[in-house]
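ok trying again, last paste got cut off:
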Amino acid sequence: TTRADGSGTDSRCLGSARRPRSLALNLATPSSSSSLSYRLAMSPATPEALRSELKLLTGRASAVLFDFDGTLTASPGETAQRCRKQVELRERAPMLRPRLGRLREAGLLLGIISKSSECTICGALREAGLAELFHGPLVAKAVGFEGKAGFILEMVRKGDLGPLGDEGQSQVLLVDDDILELERAKEKGIQTYAAPKEGGLQEE
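nice, full thing came through this time. structure:
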């Protein structure tokens, strides 16, 4: 589905979609060193207090939506060039692939929501051999008044992320390096996980 502003959801370059089953995840708390059973197996550790506050899950998750620039790739969107995105994702693929695979095996729906274009995202995913791991929606050019949170709420309402029921956004996790996007999502009841300020998601 494409919006009038050119943004929209698509899965043509991603793997075949299937409805997720809910997965109860072990939660990290400020007073505990235990974290997600998977921690996305990629734990962003930064000294920023706010970023730390935005990387804890608060409940069950059925769908995970990843930002592209600065989260899956290493360079934030404002600094990355299209050709460099492909190079970075290809270089990071050996680290990302097994971890994304484990999330898939756990029954989570994986998608991408990004301000980048569909062409850029799909090209980089294919080049890196990661396209088949993302079987949920691809939302490209995700720029709007409510930020990515607005797009997520619309997908939940339309059932694009599976039958999540009432307050379904609480079962969606947004993984992003943009603090503003994460704050907006948190305000709407969406779970958030902050990637590092620089370098994208990292190995533990």
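cool. Confidence is low (pLDDT under 50) at residues 16-39, 41-47. The chain is about 30% helix and 10% strand.
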